[in-house]
Design a protein that fits this description.
The protein has helices spanning 10-18, 39-48, 68-83, 102-112, 129-139, 157-167, 184-191, 233-250; strands at 2-7, 23-26, 52-56, 88-91, 116-119, 143-146, 172-175, 195-198, 201-205, 227-231. The mean pLDDT is 94. The protein has an eight-stranded parallel β-sheet. It is 37% helix and 18% strand. The chain has one domain (2-250): Copper homeostasis (CutC) domain (TIM Barrel, Alpha-Beta Barrel), CATH 3.20.20. It is α/β, with parallel strands linked by helices. It contains eight helices and ten strands. Belongs to the CutC family. It is found in: Cytoplasm. Its main location: cytoplasm. InterPro entries: CutC-like, CutC-like_dom_sf. It holds the Pfam family CutC.
């Protein structure tokens, strides 16, 4: 079982490795579903981790139909990731009609090589999952991260299982979203997945002693600036163990 942990800061990357993750997906902005992290963050994470580091290439939150300016920013970000010696990049581009933008995805994939390339959950916003599957294979993605076009992978488990069957080893299909200690056994059992993606999130208190109560949340959730999002290595270990216990029974 391959375990990928999505992380949003340097401490979480270190905790994911401590918990036994095989690789991380490094992002920023969890509230927007993940965007491209800073080069400083990428560099420090790469220098301090021995496991694989995949970097999100997403210039903004929202949809996955990008302007020419945004597309060029994605190409620049991939170039920087190559210079920083990461192992892979993660992106997805859609046409306004809900199909995979094969032309621009292929251009980014070709540019990214020899890095590994994952199509993220833009796949879940595609109009036809089986059409999108074949398009992803055609342009050269190595894997697809999906919740089966649902909000959570358990809800989309039947579709994920179909995708894995139709892929037939041509591309990896990795369930993600809502994968945790309570759901991973059922997800793996239903889908037969060999890779899983999850966050193993916990929160710790900020060390700040002085707190300006007049500006709670800095415009976001109240008090959010005094809660720090990190990965819980024990949750990583537990979820992996549960996933592997299911796989061992199906071998």
């Amino acid at each position: 079982m391959t375990v990928e942990i999505v992380v949003y800061n340097i401490e979480s990357a270190l905790k994911a490795q401590e918990g036994g993750a095989d690789r991380i997906e490094l992002c920023e902005n969890p509230g927007e579903g993940g965007t491209t992290p800073s080069y400083g963050t990428i560099e420090l994470v790469r220098q301090n981790l021995s496991i694989d580091v995949f970097v999100m290439i997403r210039p903004r939150g929202g949809d996955f139909a990008y302007s020419n300016y945004e597309f060029h920013a994605m190409k620049r970000d991939i170039s920087q990731c190559q210079k920083l010696s990461v192992d892979g990049v993660v992106f997805g581009i859609l046409n306004p009609d809900g199909t995979i933008d094969k032309k621009r995805c292929k251009e980014l994939i070709d540019k990214a090589r020899p890095l590994k390339v994952t199509c993220h959950r833009a796949f879940d916003m595609a109009r036809d999952p089986f059409e999108a599957l074949e398009d992803c294979i055609e342009v050269g993605f190595d894997r697809i991260l999906t919740a089966g076009q649902q909000t959570q992978a358990l809800k989309g488990a039947d579709l994920i299982a179909e995708l894995i069957k139709k892929a037939n080893g041509r591309i990896a299909i990795m369930p993600g979203s809502g994968v945790n200690e309570n759901t991973v056994e059922e997800i793996v059992k239903k889908t037969g997945a060999k890779e899983i993606h999850f966050s193993a999130t916990t929160f710790k208190a900020s060390p700040m002693q002085y707190r300006n109560e007049a500006i709670a949340g800095m415009g976001s959730d109240e008090g959010a600036e005094f809660k720090l999002r990190v990965v819980d290595p024990e949750r990583v270990k537990k979820t992996r163990a549960l996933a592997e216990s299911v796989k061992s029974l199906t071998v």
